[in-house]
Fold:
Amino acid sequence: MSHLDPHGSAEPRGWDRPDAPAPAPALPWPEPEIEPGQWHRRSAVLPDAYVGSPSRGGGSADVPADEDPLAMSGHREHPDDSEHPTSQFEAVRDVAPEPPRAAGRRRGRRRAGIDRPPTEPSVPSRAGRNLPAAIAVGLALGALILVPLFLYPPAFMVVVAGAVAIGSWEMARAVRRSGAHPPLVPLIAGGALTIGLAWFSGPDALSLGLLVTVLGTMLWRLGDGPSGFRRDLTAATLIAVYVPFLAGFAALLAAAPGDGRWRVLVTLAAVVLSDTGGYAAGVHFGKHPMAPSVSPKKSWEGFAGSVTAAALGSALLLWLLLDVAPWWGALFGLAISCAAVLGDLAESMIKRDLGVKDMSNLLPGHGGLMDRLDSILFALPTAYLLLAVFVPVLE
Structure:
């Protein structure tokens, strides 16, 4: 036996009712144009024929009680509200939207009190990177370069070849966003060959290594068919010139008899001084963008700091280590700083054209290895040419 009708009807409901009468015709409400929040308003829901005087409980004066849909459906107001269990419920009203939260306090932030100061959000570095991680990684990279350079120079060549392989991989990975697919295997193999030839045989062998690398990538790419051949070969040539060929000048500097390690050291020191001076001056005094469409964070004040720090430091280092007059050392630092800034801008333009922020996330606080090698790669041939004039190599 099912439960009785809460409105007083003793007739059974559901499947216990023997013969269910035909369903009543659908009531004329709610109308389609009425919003859901207004369904509880009878005057807006019912037609004019069903709106009557309050004395009859909302019914119409010319509609009989047995034809009044409110009376038939059990929704007629009754003098005795105790018979209607839902009569004590309040009418549904439109709920006002929740007021917006204060701008200073977001969800999940604890509220400040007398014994609890407000939570201060972490302020990122003005340079846009994790400075402690960048310093730690920079010191580790410096030790990785200088320790084999002074203890066992052939191991330095292994480090340079490894850096060329990683840089070629990052460049090939980045240019794939433009649809080009340069062959990676001949690029890495050709890069190692280029470094070895420069170390053992000098500048002419360096050019030969570049030629062999480009030809190797072209022959390797022919195996994949003619589709996109020119695009892939152009990207491979760019990588071969940008990474292994320019890095080969580090091998030429280190291969100089007698003072090769000092030549590499003063070159790297000039680049580090340029980067450090530019960072310090740009953070504290940078106001005028240098190339906003390429690198918005570089400023003319930072460039002045780069040139000043590199010139002063190089004048001292070249005088102490290579016995070069200070004014020639200052000129060396000035040229290295300009080359380093141009290398940084060149890679920024490549990354902006490819739509990437960093070449990879291999080095915390720096991005990819190419994000650190960009300024060094342009500085190496500049240093090699200037030192060949200032400090001629004695055979």
Observations:
- Residues 150-255 form one domain.
